[in-house]
């Protein structure tokens, strides 16, 4: 049974709460007021440990709520978590409270404060609403993640130069670092109203995902019954019995995923079930079910395609597309095509890509390069997964499961139309020929 489940009319969501010590307790107190949520709190003290803290809980949590945008951005950019991610924004009410504290405890003018996270115009608009007309000269706005060291250096430098009297920061680790340096600093904590707003969004997302899990899913499998044959099996009766045994195994598997099985030709079968059932047995479309779960021996599955759709017909079409991609990915590969056209797989492999064939821009590039949209999408997904736009032919061949000669042809075609350039060479074997490293522009 799925972790996110329906109990009467109430959904249950295992919500990971990730944040700094001073904000997490308040967020947890608000979250516990909602009967739909089961909270799993995690405190962090350094940005470098965020992924290590998240990773062990990835399969135990349905969604994540972060106390701020920095840990949220770190996890989002890592690509390691497929669960929905949310963070509590630092809205105006949070800053009002902090400015009031600075005014009453130390009578510090706004112009003598340095700020981070917020956009300058956002602070100015807030002060205008309060009737405060003072310049805001020192604001360090950033998108995504940032290190506590970079923020603390920014604030501390201004203070040491005598330009400011205190810092206003949204990042707890920067707050602690500035306190150690002896600088006056005020921490902006999340407002309760902001926490309530994002939690309501989380619950609505949970309801949407619950409906999504009920979508129709089709699994198309090609099996090789002869994989289980012994050298003494030669008669047609023996082969027929092997095929019957394979069918019985698939019937048991279909029952496990609460689906129905039908034959689709020699050695091919189709299972009609739900998105939620297949999502669970593949652990979120990441792994291939074990032989114990499927009842099939290693090597019996030639290829498997899973399709998701709003109707049985649509799901079957998507399953056919996924099946063809699986056949191209090598024996035993499992691929998924979702209802939005996104392709994911091969499941259970170290190189697992998720990409979409949609987009007019990629279709134009396909015409320009002579490469297929699927090849360009895979290449783009590979570069994103690697976190760099540089790659050499043997690496590309390994990711795409093609021969190096084909990978070199792809890179040469991109170079011909100006979408790639040679950035250097690498020589993994001292006596071998150097390999060209290409920089890709997609």
UniProtKB/TrEMBL annotation:
Query: Where does the source fall among the domains of life?
Result: Bacteria
Q: Which InterPro entries match?
A: Rev_trsase/Diguanyl_cyclase (IPR043128)
The name of this protein is Transcriptional regulator
What is the organism field in this record?
Geobacillus uzenensis
